[in-house]
Design a protein that fits this description.
two-stranded antiparallel sheet, OB fold (Dihydrolipoamide Acetyltransferase, E2P), EC 3.6.1.-, 13 strands, Small ribosomal subunit biogenesis GTPase RsgA, about 25% helix, binds guanosine-5'-triphosphate, rRNA binding, 3 domains, GTPase activity, binds zinc ion, Ribonucleotide Reductase Protein R1, domain 1, Rossmann fold
Length: about 325
């Protein structure tokens, strides 16, 4: 029997669900222990000989990109072959700027475009404050054409559902988008708004996969259109976001507000922590300057630099 192609649309531990081009789905198991398939992977698979309807993933086709985090002890892949990542935070609970920055750096390192959404604009005062905290992200890398800033989308998923659905549908059109966000920001609300019946679908998948198996975490791909061109990938929340796969000396290049000034330091191997003649340090200041670097961002950089320079043990 020759191998067929398919797309991984769900992953639960070591098992995954592979969708064929005709839309049929089946549970598949990876061949080896290494190189587990992740959601978004294009794979070659084969049906089992004994005909229980399940299959085996024979090969993972070359990935365009892979977004993952690398904590001290383990690596956690989010998904592969992404066009963009939607990072959903909210006015409340207050989001961690460090986690946001880490997610953005991981996106830059993977070569995937991040978009930030700030939910709960109906909570007027906390929203205004959060929107202000996001000022550097809305302007970093300079203003004007070709500037490398991040799109920041205000949302109120429960109060202006229809308006938000339109904006999001446009943003996600024709793309494969991973949604990341801390618990409580409104990720389930967003998925259910865009994919009516998502909960039922996930329930069915978990049940099919869960029979006699331990299923805890899951990542699921949902199609947003009948033509199956726009996809939304939902993955479990996270409390930490390790970047141990990134070298400390690469951090500045992956932070657009720092990257803007990299040619200007006196020393070619400047760490932008303490050196005289550092063009990055010269731009660290309070206030609204699209060429500037907020003290918060520099503090996060300093922490990350220390974390990634520490010897592994
Ligand atoms: N005020 C307000 N509340 C919202 C909005 N969107 C979601 N919520 C509420 O925020 C809470 C968290 O929303 P969820 O969608 O469950 O968030 P989640 O990110 O999936 O959180 P977990 O399930 O913990 O991962 C719920 O009580 C929602 O009703 C919004 O636009 N405004
Ligand atoms: Zn420097």
């Amino acid at each position: 029997m020759s191998d067929a192609t398919g797309l991984v649309v769900a992953a639960f531990g070591r098992h995954c669900v592979v969708e064929s081009p005709d839309g049929a789905r089946r549970i598949c198991h990876p061949r080896g222990k290494k190189n587990l398939p992740v959601v978004g992977d294009r794979v070659l698979w084969q049906g089992a000989r004994h005909g229980d309807g399940e299959g085996t993933v024979e090969k993972i086709l070359e990935r365009r990109n892979l977004l993952y985090r690398q904590d001290e002890v383990r690596s956690k892949s989010f998904a592969a072959n992404l066009d963009q990542v939607l990072i959903l935070v909210a006015a409340e609970p207050t989001f961690s700027e460090s986690l946001l920055t880490r997610a953005l750096i991981a996106c830059e390192a993977a070569g995937v475009q991040p978009v930030i959404a700030l939910n709960k604009s109906d909570l007027v005062a906390p929203f205004a404050q959060a929107w202000q905290r996001l000022w550097p992200y809305r302007h970093m890398g300079g203003d004007g054409d070709g500037a490398h800033h991040y799109q920041v989308l205000p949302l109120s998923l429960t109060q202006s559902a229809e308006v938000d659905r339109k904006a999001l549908t446009q943003l996600l059109h024709g793309k494969t988008t991973l949604v990341l966000g801390p618990s409580g920001a409104g990720k389930s609300t967003l998925v259910n708004l865009l994919v009516p019946g998502a909960e039922v679908l996930t329930g069915e998948l978990s049940q099919a996969l869960g029979a006699g198996r331990h299923t805890t975490t899951s990542t699921t791909l949902y199609w947003l259109d009948g033509a199956r061109r726009s996809a939304l990938i939902d993955s479990p929340g996270f409390q930490s976001f390790g970047l141990n796969h990134i070298a400390a000396t690469d951090l500045a290049r992956l932070m657009p507000d720092f990257a803007l000034h990299l040619g200007g330091c006196r020393f070619y191997n400047c760490t932008h922590l303490h050196e005289p003649g550092c063009a990055v340090l010269a731009r660290v200041a309070e206030g609204q300057d699209s060429q500037g670097i907020s003290p918060w961002r520099h503090r996060i950089y300093r922490e990350l630099f220390a974390e990634l320079s520490a010897p592994a043990y």
